[in-house]
Amino acid sequence: MEFAAIPWVQGSLVTLALAVIASACWLVFKGLLVPQRTHDSFVAVLELRITEKAVEVENYKVAWQAAEAARREQDGQLSELLEYARTTDQVIRALGRRGSRDALAP
């Protein structure tokens, strides 16, 4: 007697085959099992998005570097202007002290 001829084995094999078919249908329905062509198109789209994001990152990096250079330039100009303001303040204060001494002298 062959192994596949036993009645309970035949029922088990049919049940096993139905379970495999049902699980394959379930995987397709859930989207976990897709055709190779669909998978390749998904991969191509994702690779395109990755390259676009890499270009976008590079553009943002260049823009940030330009903004940092402008900020450094602005800081230098502001410190120079503050130095001029301090010098002007000292000159005006010195002139004010000298004027007050001249007003007190007869």
What does this structure look like?
The chain crosses the membrane at residues 6-29. By secondary structure, this protein is mainly α. It has a domain at 36-103. Helix content is 88%, strand content 0%. The termini are far apart.
Question: Secondary structure elements and their pairing?
Answer:
Blueprint: H1 7-30, H2 36-104
List keywords for this structure.
transmembrane helix, membrane, 106 residues, mainly alpha, rod-shaped, single chain
Question: What would a concise description of this structure say?
Answer:
Keywords: Membrane, Transmembrane, Transmembrane helix. This protein is an all-alpha fold and 106 residues long. It has helices at 7-30, 36-104.
Beta-strand residue percentage = under 5%
- Return the string of H and E elements: HH
Radius of gyration: 42 Å
- What value does the average pLDDT take? 86
User: Biggest sheet: strands, sense, closure?
Assistant: none
Overall form: rod-shaped
Q: Structural class, judged by helices and strands?
A: mainly alpha
**What's the total count of β strands?**
0
Helix count, DSSP H or I runs of 4 or more residues: 2
Q: What low-confidence regions span 5 or more consecutive residues with pLDDT below 50?
A: none
Q: Give the terminus-to-terminus CA distance.
A: 141 Å
Share of helix, binned? over 70%
Keywords: Membrane, Transmembrane, Transmembrane helix
